[in-house]
Amino acid sequence: MYAFEIDRPTTLDAAVTALGQEEAQALGGGQTLIPALKQRLASPARLVSLTGIDELKGICVADDGALCIGAATSHATVAAEAAATYPALADLAAHIGDPAVRNRGTIGGSLANNDPSACYPAAVLASGATIRTNTREIAADDYFEGMFATALEEGEIITEIRFPVPEQAAYVKFAQPASRFALVGVFIARFGDGVRVAVTGASEDGVFRWTEAEAALSDDFRPEAVAGLSVDPEGMIGDLHGSPEYRAHLIRVLTGRAVAAA
Amino acid sequence: MPKDHGIGASSKRREDKRFLTGKGRYTDDINLPGQAHAWFVRSQVAHGRLTGVDTSAAEAMPGVLRVFTGADFEGVGGLPCGWLVTDRFGQPMQEPGHPVLARGKVRHVGDPVAVVVAETAEQARDAAEAVEVEIDELPAVLDMKAALDPDAPLVHDELKNNLCYDWGFVEENRAAVDAAFETAAHVTTLDLVNQRLVPNAMEPRVALGDFNPATEDSTLYTTSQNPHVIRLLMGAFVLGIPEHKLRVIAPDVGGGFGSKIFHYAEEAFCTFAAKQLKRPVKWTCTRSEAFISDAHGRDHVTRIELALDAEGHFQALRTETHANMGAYLSTFAPSIPTWLHGTLMAGNYKTPLIYVNVKAVFTNTVPVDAYRGAGRPEATYQLERVIDKAAREMGIDPVEIRRRNFITEFPYATPVAVEYDTGDYNATLDKLLEIADVAGFEARLADSKSRGMLRGLGLNCYIEACGIAPSQLVGQLGARAGLYESATVRVNATGGLVVMTGSHSHGQGHETTFAQVVADMIGIGEDMVEIVHGDTANTPMGMGTYGSRSLAVGGSAMVRATNKIIAKAKKIAAHLMEAAPEDIELKDGRFSVAGTDKSVAWGDVTLAAYVPHNYPLEDIEPGLEETAFYDPNNFTYPAGVYACEVEVDPDTGKVTVCSFAAADDFGNIVNPMIVSGQVHGGIAQGVGQALLEAASYDDYGQLLSGSYMDYAMPRADDVPFYRVDHSCATPCTHNPLGVKGCGEAGAIGSPPAVVNAVVDALQRAGHTGVTHIDMPLTPSRVWAAMQG
């Protein structure tokens, strides 16, 4: 690890100010950034920890029924406290990493990083969630901009994620054998006005919506509805753990399983 | 009734108290006053000409004491290779140099180029980034067959090609084997890969060198399985330090699996630098660094052919293997694909004609050497896979074809130069069928089908050769070391014993089992026996622990030394009781005169030995301490039969191991619980190889699976609860304990069972074109196989 300065603001305003400094980098739960620092793959001059800001933590249900999760809320807290309101989301959170990761890692950190194999982006995109920051609200459909890329501006801080709660939902993850990140993960959310299907782990462009399956499932919400569909392997990730063809195949299989589980 | 102490008792592992409470003392726990820290600058490219190393910027950085490069080692020897293999034309293998730090060329990603020594590890690491290494990159030699192309770039410019040796075994049998194939009723051929693995001991390697300028004594603390071997190799061949001025200490060591047998550059460096700087120098390997600096295992590409008669009797076996040596010859690398592999190709079967060809190849990859099983898993895997394939082709039940070919009479001399002393393969197979409930498979198959899952059953036999020996023979085969073991038994005045063994425990539980043996022989409590190992200053010259040799070889030395103690103690007891030594009996820690009620306690005798007031000083010396060396006259031959049941998800290709059963014949057992634990761990590693692990290089020689993000280790939920049995014991006929060794069996016996089971599952589901899938059987590979 290279030497760096660290700020531990306790208010959002202080965090925004701190992030305005030269070469400042926001630090959430540190489950990606700290290992990168340890391996000397990142060398920020200053870290601004967001986990000491109470106003960024916690879960509540808004008047319109949406589930609101503070950006600095840990996966373990989501797993425990969202279970009654949004069980599929709580189940997703309960299966990220291991207990240490779940107790340190935060939803805001995961979304700001936008790892192409992370679980939360699938839930956010499938739910049509809104990402609130210190300056604005961003719709999920506008937020994810490819591998490790998001709509966040320099110094912008995610404060809260607001999830409309679907009538039915499920997340099915097929684990990469070594890292146990999603080799492919599919989140399905069924609302009164249709079904949304988001896929993580598979595409070179990061999380994406499988619109063909959405249309089929909006008409007929049964696993059989997607049995005849296929995903084009073009643009899917190919690596040690699976070819583009295998990932494309898994998307269909897992989508069917998610429908069955929803 | 299970015994509650001594030989045969499942005594709790005494070492676990310190390991489980954080009181172990590992090499990294040792810190010496004035200690400096080393950080290695390693090649980031697989192959290149080293045109310059500029250390000036690094030397100016805070805390830096000195930066070493290959030039500092001009007058120093290279890392020696401990085994000379002679090729099938009678010529010695090509043996390139192996410098401590690279000179002239870098030959694999991770090859050490320079070392920064600084006041702290962080300072050393900071400065290491300022060392400027200039390399003219060369094409990397990676594929073994392409490496043998006459136009292939040379890994070592001084060699005529990239072939270390072309070994034939037994060369004289070749024509007869070929002729048998011409006339065979059936020939089964299988091409397979035994993939490269990274050993991944829980404790990364550490070296701490120390030098006393006043006495000129050097000390090396290191994560080693064999400190005496390191002392000899490093002292005599690399640094020129006589053994009486060099002490090597391997304290608690957190797993080795073979990877800590070898003498590594970092050990020589820290010892050398400590003397240069007159300060202790410590290096602690990071996990990332371990992936590119610990010797890897396996990495064989094989074609195996089995000739059978119309009834499925094996007529002849022929193999051609390309074995990867990596960029340099690690300490015992040449012996693994030859003497620890070719000699095992008979397996449990009376195949009359066998020919094994091995081409060992240099490539721009991390050196490959022994890894749990070392040659024997490679032999077992190819043999048991080709037998399964042959059985399927000929429509013979896989159990029946094995029974039909079992060796049933012992001793049995194989056509590959070894003699099995004892075994009962039918009994072990019967036991396996029972504990695996093979009869109930059809019902479980139906249950799997009802859930939409494919189910398969795989089984296989294995034989291994443990306690490699005797020294005279292995010397003729090219070993540059003896393969005996040693023990000193020191009895204290008040009756307690200290056993100083040349074996080394790095997880095996020797401190418990060795104490059980000695306590049992004398008839005293196990808590009266202390086991000391791991320090060349207070143990007799020994060869350490690998190849499942510790109890069979080291234990035998200990038994001999203890017998000497008992013989002398009987003389003392005879004197005390005014009887003849031959009339003295030792039982339950008491000496008695046969046919009388006269007796003295063990403690009375030991006290007399050190307070010799009433003592036969004219006949024997005072004191009670004996040393013995034991050089076995043969290997031991543990054998067993393993069965695995899997479910395969037809939609994803994911394999789940539903059950795993192991019936082993380890001869006599000292501690059944520890033996079961060894089998459990071995199977986990074997399942890891079969389903998960692979060291994969890209076309440029970069290790793609260079961290746990991409290198899949087996975890608790990847393996089932095991059913293990070691009741079918045919004691070894040539060592005093009748023991055979159990450390590697699990890793040797399990990969073919898993692969046989997966192929069986796919075949039963109608994928009749799938006759083989190369390990690891990842979901994507199994799915791809099902796609045809």
TrEMBL record, chain A:
InterPro entries: CO_DH_flav_C, CO_DH_flav_C_dom_sf, Diverse_Substr_Oxidored, FAD-bd_PCMH, FAD-bd_PCMH-like_sf, FAD-bd_PCMH_sub1, FAD-bd_PCMH_sub2, Mopterin_DH_FAD-bd. It comes from the Bacteria. Coiled coil: none annotated. PROSITE patterns: FAD_PCMH. GO terms for molecular function: FAD binding; oxidoreductase activity. Residues 1-168 form the FAD-binding PCMH-type domain. Gene3D superfamilies: 3.30.465.10, CO dehydrogenase flavoprotein, C-terminal domain (3.30.390.50), Uridine Diphospho-n-acetylenolpyruvylglucosamine Reductase, domain 2 (3.30.43.10). Keywords: FAD, Flavoprotein, Oxidoreductase. This is Carbon-monoxide dehydrogenase medium subunit.
TrEMBL record, chain B:
Residues 21-139 form the Aldehyde oxidase/xanthine dehydrogenase a/b hammerhead domain. InterPro entries: Ald_Oxase/Xan_DH_a/b (IPR000674), Ald_Oxase/Xan_DH_a/b_sf (IPR036856), Ald_Oxase/xanthine_DH-like (IPR016208), AldOxase/xan_DH_MoCoBD1 (IPR008274), AldOxase/xan_DH_MoCoBD2 (IPR046867), AldOxase/xan_DH_Mopterin-bd_sf (IPR037165). Residues 1-20 are annotated as: Disordered. It comes from Rhodovulum kholense. It holds the Pfam family MoCoBD_1. The keyword Zinc-finger does not apply. One of its GO terms (molecular function) is iron ion binding. This is Xanthine dehydrogenase molybdenum binding subunit apoprotein. Keywords: Molybdenum, Oxidoreductase. SMART domains: Ald_Xan_dh_C. The lineage of its organism: Bacteria, Pseudomonadati, Pseudomonadota, Alphaproteobacteria, Rhodobacterales. Residues 1-19 have a biased composition (Basic and acidic residues). It comes from the Bacteria.
